[in-house]
Amino acid sequence: MEEPRMIHLENISKEYDGVTVLDDINLYIRKKEFVTLLGPSGCGKTTTLRIIGGFEYPTTGRVMFEGKDITNLPPYKRRVNTVFQKYALFPHLNVYDNIAFGLKLKKMSRAEISKRVDKMLNLVNMAGYGKRSVDSLSGGQQQRIAIARSLVNEPEVLLLDEPLGALDLKLRKEMQLELKSMQQQLGITFLYVTHDQEEALTMSDTIVVMNAGHILQIGTPKKIYDEPQNAFVANFIGESNIIPGTMIRDELVHFSGVDFPCVDAGFGENVPVDVVVRPEDIVIVGEDIGQLTGTVKSVLFKGVHYEMMIESGDFTWKVHSTSMQPAGSRVGLSIVPFNIHIMHPMKEAAK
């Protein structure tokens, strides 16, 4: 059963000094959902988060929380907490008192505060660190404390603004899994902001791809990756070969001088389209049996695969394979119908 809607942004726009940073966006977020706002710097994702948190107010539009208009409510009256990239811990307080700070403001009993803080320390794998100075902690440990401080107040929604950005790659990957595990254990809604595509694909139930103040696509990680709706999404989420083609009819497309069976339909007949093929979805075969033939122009070893640039006619294909073909060799390329994705051309998609 689908969870009910919790947050609904209705026709939200935001301007700074006459410059539009959010342009009439609409978005809803369900209870217990892990939603990621994904896009390049300046796309409007952090502004969206701050509007939900009450740190910014929209120029136009409404923020609804379980059917109630909270557009003009200050942050402390909203049932949300925020974790920022800069953890903003209190250096003069130890770990325990940092986590307990909000509870003390609520004048909870000492026993209840101790119970909640201990629970949070266990949740973030920091049991026994209560008396430590926050300045003695590593970046990853400080990040855990910042999360614990936000969660101890039992918010219904946790907003996270690129909280892993300051961590090294190994620790960032570990924390991605820990954050997802926390969200599942607690059963609360997470709204996460990042520009890191892998991070979004790893943790999210739903990804919202943004650019230039617009929402370009909303979907599950698999849907976003396998079926991008336009060239920006295809290029931003992973790597893609994008080539112009002609949709001959349903389930048949022409590109690179060849008719290819595909699984897409509904585009019409003999209409221009963009064709997307992921580098890992192209199979290198013998030159005599490939749908396309080409020459390997360059080879890079990427650790788990080789990246080869293969020139075929007027187009150079990026191919990822665990089997390396040396530069200069002639090869065939094979693409199965399921791995060919059809999009409206970018100009058409923008209409």
Protein model, in words:
- By secondary structure, this protein is of the alpha+beta class.
- The chain folds into two domains: 5-231, P-loop containing nucleotide triphosphate hydrolases (Rossmann fold, 3-Layer(aba) Sandwich); 240-349, Nucleic acid-binding proteins (OB fold (Dihydrolipoamide Acetyltransferase, E2P)).
- It contains nine helices and 20 strands.
- Strand 12 (252-255) and strand 13 form a beta hairpin.
- The chain is elongated, with a radius of gyration of 24 Å.
Low-confidence stretches: none
Strand order of the main beta sheet, please? 6-7-8-3-9-10
Q: Which CATH first-tier class of the largest domain would you pick?
A: Alpha Beta
Count of domains: 2
Count, helices:
9
Based on the model shown, name its key terms.
351 residues; 2 domains; OB fold (Dihydrolipoamide Acetyltransferase, E2P); 20 strands; 9 helices; alpha+beta; six-stranded mixed β-sheet; Rossmann fold; five-stranded antiparallel β-sheet
